Amino acid sequence: MNRRPLIAGNWKMHLTLAEAVRLARAVAETCGACPDRDVMVAPAFTALAPVCEAVRGTPLLVAAQNVAWEKEGAFTGEISPAMLTDIGVGLTIVGHSERRQIFGESDAMINRRLLGALAGDIDPVLCVGETLEEREAGRTFAVLEEQLRQGLHGVSSEQMQRVVLAYEPVWAIGTGKTATKEQAQEVHGVVRRFLAGKYEKNVAEATRILYGGSVKPENIDSLMAQPDIDGALVGGAALQAESFDRIVRFR
Ligand code: 13P
């Protein structure tokens, strides 16, 4: 199966406007030199419109870090899919573990966000992942299946063509502790088997599953060599043009 690799940078709550635009321009250049893969960046909301403007006409994809499910209304602090399409944003992350853990977002809420994105012409990148406690209790696969079952509730096979999944073990995020390539491959295989059970085999084979959690220039090549790892969702190492450039140019 030929899945087009996707290397994504999640900038989280980092970078001033000027820094974001500068970094986006540098990433767009790298991206232009790597036509066989997709490259995405997810700036903070305040930088989205200027970053879209700065990279217009380049193949770099610009994503939001979250999205609401309604078009408009009394939802203080939220941004709608229509607001994103209005400024040229075509994708969004949903269900990041920081949203789950720090801001208490439930699987049900994340599912609403994902369905809202799909309905509003925004392609979602759904994040799932277990905590250290859950892994040590031997509950990794049960936790992931539940996050996937609820997160993808009501999503059709056809809509799945627009969904990207990201496996981000919580214990590997920002800790410098990457899952080994074997650990990551094992989980990606389980996620793909879940998809084959819920949808058809061809949907499972076509869905891109990214790995995230302390991805660095030093480990990207061995992660990408795994059969079920189709890309990376990168935090810290996506904030510097040089390190992200090397990750995008994985071999
Ligand atoms: P780090 O690459 O900094 O571990 O962050 C991973 C992440 O959460 C990307 O969404």
Short characterization:
The chain is 43% helix and 14% strand.
Bound molecules: 1,3-dihydroxyacetonephosphate
The CATH superfamily appears as: Aldolase class I
Largest sheet: 8 strands, parallel, barrel
Report strand order across the widest sheet.
1-2-3-4-5-6-7-8
Residue share in helix: 40-55%
Q: So what's the CATH class?
A: Alpha Beta
Which structural class do you get from the secondary structure elements? alpha/beta
Instruction: Write the CATH architecture name.
Output: Alpha-Beta Barrel
Secondary-structure element order, N to C: EHEHEHEHHEHHHEHHEHEH
Q: Spans with pLDDT under 50 lasting ≥5 residues?
A: none
Query: Count the helices. How many?
Result: 12
User: How many E strands?
Assistant: 8
Q: What's the CATH topology name?
A: TIM Barrel
Morphology call: globular
Oligomer: single chain
Q: Can you walk me through this structure?
A:
The mean pLDDT is 97. This protein has one domain (6-248): TIM Barrel, CATH 3.20.20.70. The chain is globular and about 45 Å long. The protein is of the alpha/beta class and 251 residues long. It has an eight-stranded parallel β-barrel with strand order 1-2-3-4-5-6-7-8, surrounded by six helices. It has helices spanning 17-32, 45-55, 81-86, 97-101, 107-119, 132-136, 140-151, 157-160, 181-198, 201-206, 220-224, 241-248; strands at residues 6-10, 38-42, 61-64, 91-94, 123-128, 164-167, 209-212, 231-234. It has twelve helices and eight strands. Bound molecules: 1,3-dihydroxyacetonephosphate.
